[in-house]
Amino acid sequence: MIRYTLSRLLSLVLSLIAASVVIFAVIEVIPGDPASYMLGMNAAPETVAALRRDLGLDAGPVARYLGWIGGMLTGDFGTSYTYRVPVAELVQARLGVSLPLTLYALLLSVVIAFPVGLIAASRRGGAADIGIMGVTQLGIAIPNFWFAMLLVLVFSIHLRWFSAGGFPGWDNGFWPNIQALTLPAVALALPQASILARVMRSAVLEVLGQDYIRTARAKGLSRRQTVFRHALRNALIPVLTIIGLQFSFLLAGAIIIENVFFLPGLGRLIFQGITQRDLIVVESVVMLLVFAVILVTFLVDLAYAAVDPRLRKR
């Protein structure tokens, strides 16, 4: 288990190094100079040069990259060109919206997908299975931003059960914020729940075809007991993979949903940073999201070893 963990940890570190180089290189080739954008088109060249020196943009790419990475390792993400405040403060404030939204959507996805996938697997070929597969295919096909606008139209404009957007802030209480995050979480969870339900069904059906399952049935166990006692545990490995990827996707891929509902999260911060040429904000937030994706993948690998003891010997 220790060797397995160390090998995955080495892969995590190498992936982070490669990702940081790619992110920095991609951001560097984005057209537009932050200093010129901040001062306007009619700014004097001397003023632009002075601001570039103040922002540290006059240094070479290698020096800027090493300074950026060194700062991130010590918790210093740099200072925003636009807001003139530490990027860490911006990330901390926006993470208070994006992280609860991600966890809320992931919880909804799991709560919906697990029973739906098990029902479809236990009734293979029946009306329930066919209906569930049809609904999940529709859930995958519908774009989440279109579904988000449909939710706003029905539940905000017509029924007036939820607000159409905005975030009151955690200082105003728990339930008002949960209410504000409900529609965005549902919009994010629908396609993920559809994918997870289909994976759950396929994994359970594959396990149910194994010899030891037939042996358990021959010993007198009911189909329900066989599914929950034997099949479910062994079917969790592909399901854990999807759950890990879904968390990463929901955290890093909520830019459109956050803009639809005017949520001040990390996705909206990235969008604002790109439009304002605030390169240090874009670099740092994207790197943070990449770190979250790679870390979740690492934790999923460890979960594999916990579920399947055979992996601990590798």
TrEMBL record:
Residue ranges annotated for the ABC transmembrane type-1 domain, each copy included: 95-300
Chief place of localization: membrane
Origin superkingdom: Bacteria
Segments traversing the membrane: 101-121, 142-162, 174-191, 235-257, 285-307
Keyword field: Cell membrane, Membrane, Transmembrane, Transmembrane helix, Transport
Cross-referenced PROSITE patterns: ABC_TM1
Membrane topology category: Multi-pass membrane protein
Pfam families, per database record: BPD_transp_1 (PF00528), BPD_transp_1_N (PF19300)
Subcellular location: Cell membrane
PANTHER family: DIPEPTIDE TRANSPORT SYSTEM PERMEASE PROTEIN DPPB-RELATED
Protein family (similarity comment): Belongs to the binding-protein-dependent transport system permease family.
The name this protein goes by in its record: ABC transporter permease
Organism per entry: Plastorhodobacter daqingensis
